[in-house]
Amino acid sequence: MNRRTFLSGTLAVGMVRPARADIHGFGRGGWQALLGAHAGRPLIVHFWGLTCGPCLTELPDWGRFAHSRPNADLVLVAADPVPQPGDRLAETLAQAGLAGAESWSFDGRFPSRLYFEVDPSWAGELPRTVLCGRGGTQESWIGTADFARVTTWLDSQKA
């Protein structure tokens, strides 16, 4: 096989790939950027990871939630202690029904800085959900999501 044939085959294979979610890098200043982009609207931020078993188990539940509440501002942040490949993250999100969700991934070598930026008392435990109210209030918990709690909170945020 010559080089041209190989490259043509490689491009053709690349073209039939399923659409991938766009994963944004979450580095220093990422938390404030995320909050600023959603200012004035209720925001649900769910931190998860490929290396977290409970996270992977509940991702399809987040997919169902996102489909039942298409107008909710839901952001998923992959917060693995070691950054994971974007393709793996996107594939996992797609399998959970979250291909179209706004998604970020911790960027850099020192995730503890990013944990601290989100919440100075957070040591990186996953999963973690943060509910950010219209007026800037935040409520968070560690562990799998309580979707009744999320739904009740979201309904209370209606203008």
What key attributes describe this structure?
159 residues, alpha/beta, 6-stranded mixed beta sheet, 6 helices
**Beta-strand residue percentage:** 15-25%
Head-to-tail CA distance between termini: 63 Å
SSE order, one letter for each helix or strand: HEHEHEHEHEEH
Compute the number of structural domains.
1
- Rg calculated over all Cα atoms: 17 Å
Share of residues in helices? 40-55%
Major β-sheet annotation = 6 strands, mixed
Strand-helix topology:
Layout (H helix, E strand, L loop, with lengths): L2 H13 L7 E4 L3 H8 L5 E6 L4 H16 L4 E6 L7 H10 L6 E5 L4 H8 L9 E5 L5 E5 L4 H10 L3
Parallel strand pairs: 1-4, 2-3, 3-4
Antiparallel strand pairs: 2-5, 5-6
Description:
There is one protein chain. With 159 residues, the protein is of the alpha/beta class. It has a single domain (20-156), classed as 3-Layer(aba) Sandwich (Glutaredoxin). Helix content is 41%, strand content 19%. It is built from 6 helices and 6 strands; from the N terminus they run αβαβαβαβαββα. It has helices at residues 3-15, 30-37, 53-68, 86-95, 111-118, 147-156, and strands at 23-26, 43-48, 73-78, 102-106, 128-132, 138-142. The protein has a 6-stranded mixed beta sheet, with helices on both faces. Strand 3, helix 4 (86-95) and strand 4 form a beta-alpha-beta unit. The longest helix has 16 residues, at 53-68. The chain starts with a helix and ends with a helix. The relative contact order is 0.20. Residues 1-21 have low confidence and may be disordered.
